[in-house]
Design brief:
It is built from 7 helices and 2 strands; from the N terminus they run αααααααββ. With 185 residues, the protein is mostly helical.
């Protein structure tokens, strides 16, 4: 029995470090902000684009739940207030379906940037795996929406063929969302 106990620690998931649980809570709040922003933007879409937007919104809800489960009680279950506050004027300014699709492409690219940046900082296997799983979904959302909007390569892949892995205050569409600019409230 002692031999089994000596090896059992190799099969246990290590406890996430505080930064990683903070990041999971941050990601949960961003994903819930995406749900809110999609809900508002869906009103600007028509036909099959409504169904696509609703499906992507639902993916964000699922991602939020997954991140909340990794946040060690730090998740608030609320949309990131700063992100919603920052992006709501842009949603209100959308005048037509092409502008709404372009807006969503930008948001999805910013989410992918956010996760690419996080990969360089995270150390907890479960949180890291969640980010590795989420990042390509965000990129796929951007690609699908960009294709529907008939964006050219420069607008479709605003940072080139790879994610930048850089973050900022949300004003630059080529950067993700910085935890210090969008605190979990």
């Amino acid at each position: 029995m002692a031999r089994l106990e000596a090896f059992s620690h190799w099969f246990q998931t290590p406890t996430p470090v505080p930064f990683d649980t903070d990041y999971a809570a941050f990601a949960e709040s961003l994903e819930l902000a995406m749900v809110a922003l999609y809900n508002d933007t869906l009103l600007k879409l028509t036909g099959e684009n409504v169904a696509t937007g609703a499906r992507f919104r639902d993916h964000h809800q699922e991602h939020a739940q997954a991140y909340a489960s990794l946040a060690a009680g730090k998740a608030k279950g609320a949309a990131n207030y700063a992100l919603v506050l920052t992006k709501t004027p842009a949603v209100q300014a959308l005048t037509d379906e092409p502008s709404a699709l372009s807006f969503l492409v930008t948001l999805e690219n910013q989410m992918a940037e956010t996760y690419a940046y996080g990969l360089g900082l995270l150390t907890s296997p479960d949180v890291y795996r969640r980010v590795v799983t989420t990042l390509p979904v965000e990129s796929e959302h951007a690609a699908v929406l960009g294709t529907v909007a008939q964006l050219g390569p420069a607008d479709h892949f605003i940072t080139g063929p790879f994610e930048n892995a850089s973050v900022g205050d949300g004003s630059d569409p080529r950067r993700g969302f910085d935890m210090t600019a969008f605190p979990v409230s």
